[in-house]
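$ ./design --mode recover --in tokens.txt
reading tokens...
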């Protein structure tokens, strides 16, 4: 039985002057799904996420979340509705403790038991009173995601969550994603260039190229598509064998 639609994007188009960054793009994310979004640099992936989260307004198309149209809503209203995103480069307040970083992001005066549990799961609990500036890049990514979770989203869009991480850190990061998926019943839309991560962790994959969605399906299905191989996997195959 397919998951119920949580996010539905229909025929979204976005242009910047004479450049069409997105052309009639459609995709959906079901409840508790982990969906991949891939494509070469400049394919329109980040633009699509920016449109979904209200950072940019689309020229055409419609976006629905939890059965309600959110097209054109401001980012803060979309976030309150339950959609959050992370950027590729994680940010924190380096001269504040991890705990203070979470308090700044929280709408409550105290941090929830869930946030405490996530700190424990991510291995950061023993550093909660340390300055965020001492964190490694991988640890900073965990803190960044935990902070985004404090608005209680049900859909999180991750922009290259494993970029810059070593093999062990990548494994820990994706274990964390699955933990959130299982325990908090969160759905994910993941932009990622590491095809190993996409193949192993995403039930469905959407492929963008020059602003158009050229394929959708399981990893095995999309890698067989000639236009996908020409646009993307040809280069990946040369690099990775």
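writing sequence...
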């Amino acid at each position: 039985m397919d998951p119920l639609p949580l996010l539905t994007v229909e025929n979204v188009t976005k242009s910047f002057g004479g450049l069409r960054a997105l052309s009639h793009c459609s995709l959906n994310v079901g409840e508790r799904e982990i969906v991949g979004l891939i494509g070469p640099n400049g394919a329109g992936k980040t633009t699509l996420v920016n449109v979904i989260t209200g950072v940019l307004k689309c020229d055409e198309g419609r976006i629905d979340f939890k059965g309600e149209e959110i097209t054109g809503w401001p980012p803060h209203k979309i976030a309150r509705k339950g959609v959050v995103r992370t950027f590729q480069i994680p940010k924190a307040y380096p001269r504040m403790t991890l705990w203070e970083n979470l308090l700044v992001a929280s709408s409550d005066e105290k941090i929830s038991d869930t946030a405490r549990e996530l700190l424990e799961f991510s291995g950061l609990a023993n550093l909660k009173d340390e300055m965020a500036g001492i964190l490694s890049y991988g640890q900073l990514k965990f803190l960044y995601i935990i902070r985004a979770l404090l608005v209680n989203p049900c859909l999180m869009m991750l922009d290259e969550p494993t970029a810059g991480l070593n093999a062990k850190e990548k494994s820990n990061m994706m274990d964390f994603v699955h933990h959130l998926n299982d325990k908090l019943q969160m759905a994910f839309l993941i932009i990622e260039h590491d095809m190993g991560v996409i193949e192993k962790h995403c039930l469905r994959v959407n492929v963008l190229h020059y602003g158009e969605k050229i394929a959708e399906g399981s990893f095995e299905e999309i890698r067989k598509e000639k236009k996908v191989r020409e646009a993307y996997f040809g280069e990946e195959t040369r690099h990775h064998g």
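exit 0
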